[in-house]
Amino acid sequence: MKLSLYQADAFTNKLFGGNPAAVIPLKKWLDDELMQKIAMENNLAETAFFVPSRQKEADFDIRWFTPTLEINLCGHATLASAYVIIERLKWKRKKVVFSSKSGLLTVTKAKKMLEMDFPSWRPERVSDYPAELLASLGNPEIAGVYCNREYIVELMNEEAVKKCNPDYSLMRKVNKMVIITAPGNEADFVSRFFAPTAGIDEDPVTGSAHSQLIPFWNEKLGKKKMKAKQLSQRSGDIYCEQKNEKRVLMGGECVFYMRGTIILS
Q1: Are residues 26 and 113 in the same domain?
Q2: pLDDT at res. 111
Q3: How many Å apart are CA 72 and CA 36, to the nearest integer?
Q4: What contacts 135, CB < 8 A, 6 or more positions away?
Q5: What is the mean pLDDT of each run of 10 residues along the chain (265 residues)?
Q6: pLDDT value, residue 207
Q7: What's the confidence (pLDDT) of residue 171?
Q8: Cα(211)–Cα(75) distance, integer angstroms
Q9: Do 111 and 61 fall within a single domain?
Q10: Can you give the three-state secondary structure of the chain, one letter per residue?
Q11: Domain range spanning residue 82?
Q12: Whether residue 66 sits in one domain with residue 33
């Protein structure tokens, strides 16, 4: 069996920036164990697989795997998948609709940018978080701890986000992925994303995190349209909008890196 594999850098306009994602188009689903092994072999934050959808409202069904597990939502690999479909597979329309474990996800091409319509997951303030959460971040001064899919720790400023040096061994005891965020200097807000429980110490640019960060900062800043920056070593820019109470928009560019063939003998 031979499978085509594409790799693109998402949320960037420069090669070797943003977040690299592997994209594998399929005619039908492979066995779950095999898809997980392929993702482990790729050793990227996410490998996306998609098949033609049987649903009238969707073009493709999509799934995402980290090196160690399947997740329910991934932004950068969705962006990369839409880029591959539109630019490399020569899709005839400027819109792609994916069906996923997090519902329908629409990606629309707007000039150089791809704009994703994602769910809005507003986090709630919590006080009963594990002690290892702040300890793993070096016990920084915080403005608050919040939670939806991940823990969100609001730090005091952009410099604190940049300087954070997590203890990943200790963070694995938290049993959730962790976002740190603060108001930005040039961007409206900045963040970093840590996922040692999913086999990724620090994710370069995380679209799904912004399903939580957009409503969080929309409420704090009173702004519907915002620019976000993820302060990983590779860095990435996300253009954000709180569309309504249930949906957010996030936009970014992609840069093509390679196409290859997986041979499963």
Answers
A1: yes
A2: 86
A3: 14
A4: 167, 170
A5: 97 95 98 98 97 97 97 97 97 96 96 95 97 98 97 98 98 96 98 94 96 98 98 95 97 97 94
A6: 95
A7: 98
A8: 9
A9: yes
A10: CEEEEEEEEECCCCCCCCEEEEEEECCCCCCHHHHHHHHHHHCCCEEEEEEECCCCCCCEEEEEECCCCEECCCHHHHHHHHHHHHHHCCCCCCEEEEEECCEEEEEEEECCEEEEEEECCCCEECCCCCHHHHHHCCCCCEEEEEECCCEEEEECCHHHHHHCCCCHHHHHHHCCCEEEEEECCCCCEEEEEEEHHHCEEEECCCCCCHHHHHHHHHHHHCCCEEEEEECCCCCEEEEEEECCCCEEEEEECEEEEEEEEEECC
A11: 2-119+251-263
A12: yes
Please count the structural domains in the chain: 2
- Is 124 one of the catalytic residues? no
Same domain, 65 and 150: no
- 78: domain CATH number is 3.10.310.10
Same-domain status, 96 and 130: no
Which pLDDT score is estimated for 265? 82
Is-contact 48 81, C-beta < 8 A? yes
The per-residue pLDDT for 229 is 97
- Do 236 and 138 reside in the same domain of the chain? yes
Catalytic residue among 46, 115, 150, 158: 46
Rounded to 5 degrees, φ, ψ at 67 are -60, -15
Domain co-membership, 110 together with 140: no
Same domain, 235 and 155: yes
